[in-house]
Amino acid sequence: MKAYLWFWGAFLLFFALPFPCILYLGTSWPVALADRSPPWLALLLLALSLVLWLALLLAFLHYLLLGPPRALHRTRSILAAGEPRTALIEQAEQTGVQVRGFAQWTLQLSFQNLSRTPISERLLVVDSKPQLQRFAAGRAIDVRLSRTPGAYPNIVLDGAEPELDVARLWRRGIGAVIAIVAVAAAYVCAYRLQSQGLGWTFLSFGHPLLVCPLVLCGYALGLRLLGRLLQADARGDALKYRGIGADAKVLNVRQTGTYLNEQPQVEFQLEYIDREGVVRQARVRRFVPLIELANIPREQVTLLYDPDDRSHVRLEDA
Predict the structure, then answer these.
(1) Which of 65, 82, 108, 177 is the most buried (most CB within 10 A)?
(2) Cβ(240)–Cβ(119) below 8 Å
(3) pLDDT for res 73
């Protein structure tokens, strides 16, 4: 799986960084005097380029550098004041990774969320006490749930000892510094090679200094939208951990025409009765593998609905 992700990461980075440069050098280099941008447009493009790079830097700092310390603080808060639960281990398997000589496990857990609705979740843990054989299918373990679900994590093994991967943070920090230096060097080199005493007028809508950050920002936005579609973001997790379970009648099922990895998106029009006895209607979209398309439920499904927004629902097994 890691090799697969690395491949696609490298593939997308090629079209975000080297490819725009190759395309620009083959079609627009050198810039003729008649093709140069007016000074006002050149400065506008320069400002837009800097804003895009700055947005990428802020996103990197927010998610990859400051994200782990925030997750550590949140984990400690859950351990101190989280909602206790007993979870049943449905599946347990080692990942093959060793952390300080201890095996890392992936656990498929079944437990009740904050609204006492049964849900399941995957949890990655390190077995620091292998002699106890705690992580076997069919055994029960104590966990704690966040009382304010949303941002990762929302569930923590009771008695866990969380810590930061300092080496990984250092690698990310060094990578960020290298990237900043490389981008600054690109601006300096482009100016020295292309300005010819005319300032930034060589900038255009197809220049790599603008296209590269624009494509990367597009990737980042696409990932956020994909997480929203799959309900794999903080909003979806919050609903999963505090949503109330209900049986819903399927009123209609249709394909939306959207596909993800050749898997069609299906929209369910549902009707359910909330805990106050009020009949509600909602729509849920999810991607269904082609092999399961003929087996999708058409009469009744189980869903989770948001107690604060009854139209916000998700299928329980989503």
Answers:
(1) 82
(2) yes
(3) 94
Mean pLDDT by 10 residues, the chain (318 residues): 74 89 87 87 95 95 92 93 94 85 89 92 87 86 92 89 88 94 95 90 92 94 81 82 90 87 87 89 86 84 87 75
Task: List own/partner pairs for 102-107 with CB under 8 A and 24 or more apart.
Answer: 102/126, 102/127, 102/128, 102/130, 103/127, 103/130, 105/135, 107/135, 107/141
* Maximum Cα interatomic distance, the chain, rounded to a whole number of Å: 76
Structure confidence at residue 317 (pLDDT): 60
What pLDDT is recorded for position 109?
94
CA-to-CA separations, 64 to 60, 175, 268, 283, 307, in angstroms, rounded: 5, 11, 36, 34, 32
Q: d(Cα 180, Cα 192) in Å, to the nearest integer? A: 19
H or E, element range at 140:
strand 140-145
Peptide bond into 30 cis (omega under 30): yes
What pLDDT shows up at residue 287? Answer: 85
DSSP 185-212: HHHHHHHHHH-TTSTTTT--TT-HHHHH
**H-helix or E-strand containing 301?**
strand 300-306
Query: Using an 8 Å Cβ cutoff, are 135 and 122 in contact?
Result: no
Q: Produce one character per residue of 127-150: b if its CB has 16 or more CB atoms within 10 Å, e if not.
A: beeeeeebbeeeeebebbbbeebb
pLDDT of residue 318: 47
Eight-state DSSP code of residue 65: I
